[in-house]
Design brief:
mainly alpha; about 0% strand; globular
Amino acid sequence: MATERVFRPIDYVKISIFGAAIAVLWPSLHTLIIPLRLLEFASEAQKNTYLGLVTFTGSIIAVLIQPLAATLSDRFTSRLGRRRPFILVGTLLALLFLPGIGFSYSFVFLFSSYCLLQVATNIAQGPFQAFIPDLVPEKRKGVASGIKSLAEILGAVAFLRLVAFFMDNYSTEGDEMWLWMALGFPGLILLVAMVATMLTVKERPLSPGVQPSTRKAMLGAYKIDARGHPGFVWFLISRLFILMAMVVLQTFALYFIRDVIHHPNPAGVTADLMITVGIFLLLAVYPAGQLSDKLGRKPIILFSGLIGIAGIAVLFLARTYSGILVCGSLLGLSSGAFLSSNWALATDLVPPGEEARYLALTNIATAGAGALARLTGPAIDFFNAQQLGLGYSVMLLICIFYFLLGSLLVLPVRKKVGR
């Protein structure tokens, strides 16, 4: 457990830089690059299904890889610390596999490159997530979680519109230079963030004590002590449904804008939606982290779910460009409140000595939400085949249901006494 010590403002930045870089990479890929590249290999009638298949598989890989890497890092000793060696190796592998997205001239090649990239980034991300419980004083975890979310959204917003500009030019002109620029910027940022993390974050030595063997620990990498930590189980289920609502809209937004709004610049409008979400998220995330330290985590999470429902309802009733922006502003407030308070709740619930493993197990909800949300793709195509646009109406109703259920399921969460 982190001890009570001085934690300077710059320290929050140091432990959040790598998360910001990951947030540049994956929203660019999932929201813009992959959907537009898939249009080169998938038919109009099956594009949502293909997108769902690719991203579903990536989410399953994340569920499998993150806990393994995190479990190893909990018991790893080196001159660089426990977490940073995994960040180094995972980043270098990611930079090796990222160009495959550009070189792909078949669906199989694109799919394989995407999966390898998921393996690489999750080797780094699982251990990285343990910086807050490792290094942040107990009473500052809510603020640290808010700043972590703030950095990630800043990362996503800062370059998403630029990537959209590149991809719109690529899709209209067919010049591969634009595709390589869209891929190159996130790759460069990831490299810089990795170097900054390696140079600036100072990890603490592994506390002495009896540790299970690495083999035994790996065999138990996916084990959750549901009896000893029931609050963590309820937390996972609640997080799963709320994130599913967010991921469904993010994943299929470009096709929704293209098919329902009929905008001639769907990548640009999708980026406008994500940037609007990001701006309002920025306004909410830090205050939400502070409030969660004072009022508790659950009230903020419940509030986030209600605002999320309002955002989806706006898009359901007003399928216009202005409706998209209003929806984005409400979803941004919802996401900001949720991400900071929910991650702070996670750090409250993880057992001492297994911080990275349990935080990586939150990826059962995070990546699991990504996987299950992407299965909405075949449903959208099925209902669209019955009636034009019906599939997207079903998609929005599913989002509302997920927000409502996820908000209610946080109520049984209880923090263990002494934590």
